C-alpha cells in the first residue's frame, strides 16, 4: 500500500506530465531514497531516484530495468527536432546543478552535438548532484524538496519520447495524454508561417541553408508567441501573427522565462549587446 507521501509524489508527477507514476520512498543506511517511474505502459521501465546524503547533498540517477530496451530504442531513434529539445533542457538543468553526467556508452550528451548522438544506446549513465541543499527540517520536508528535482530530471527523457499528432482542422491546443503532456500542433500552420516569413530566424537572422547548405535547407523552429498550452483547444491560429520562425538558440532564449519572452524584446536584447 503506497504511503501518503508516495501518493503525493505520484500525483505531483501526474500533474506535471499527465501520465501515471509509481513512486517509492524509503530510508536506507546511506540516507533517504525517493524514486518514481512512469507506469503508463509495460515498456517504461526506468526509475528516476533522488537520494540524500546527510541532508546536505542531493543525488539524482536513472536506474533502467531489464525491460527498458524498447524505451531506449525509442529515445535513440528520436529525430533532430526532439534531440534539440532534449539538448536545450539538459542545458537548463546544467545551470541549476552542481554536477551532471548524461552518458550514452562513451558519449557525453552534455558536450556532444545532437547530430552525433549515438543510435543505438548501448548503455546509460544519468547522474546529477545538487549541492548545497537548503536547510530542511524533517523527513517530510526532504522528501517534498525532491519532488521538483524528479520532475526536472525526467524532462530530457520525455523530450525524446514526445510524439507530435496531426489533426484535422486548424485549431491548436488540444491536450493528448501519452508519455507527456503534449499539445497538438497542426503542421499546416507551421508550413504557412514559413511560406509567409521564410526559414531565416526572425530575431538574429541566422539562415541554416547558408551555413549548412542542403543539410540546413528548410530547417527552422517555429515559435508560438502565445504558448500552445495557454491558447485553448478552439483558438484558430493566424500563421503570420501568432507564429514566428526562430533558430534553436533564440527559441531557447525566448523560453528562458515563463511566460516566454516577446520576440521583439529578445531582438532588442541582441541589438543592445552587439
Beta-strand proportion: 15-25%
Largest sheet: 7 strands, antiparallel
Fraction of residues in helices? 25-40%
Q: Classify the oligomer.
A: single chain
- What is the tally of helical segments? 9
Overall number of domains: 2
Could you say which overall geometry the principal axes of the C-alpha atoms support?
globular
Distance between the termini: 59 Å
**β-strand number:** 11
The chain-level mean pLDDT equals 83
Secondary-structure element pattern, one letter each = HEEEEHHEEEHEEHHEHEHH
User: Which ranges are low-confidence, i.e. pLDDT below 50, for 5 or more consecutive residues?
Assistant: 163-171, 173-185
What does this molecule look like?
With 274 residues, the protein is an alpha+beta fold. It has two domains: 158 residues, no CATH class; 98 residues. Helices cover 36% and strands 22% of the residues. The chain contains nine helices and eleven strands. The strands form three sheets. A seven-stranded antiparallel β-sheet has the order 1-2-3-4-7-5-6. The chain has a two-stranded antiparallel sheet with strand order 8-9. β5 and β6 form a beta hairpin. α1 packs parallel to α4 and α3 packs antiparallel against α4. The longest helix is centred in the middle third of the chain and has 23 residues. It starts with a helix and ends with a helix. About 8% of the residues have low confidence.
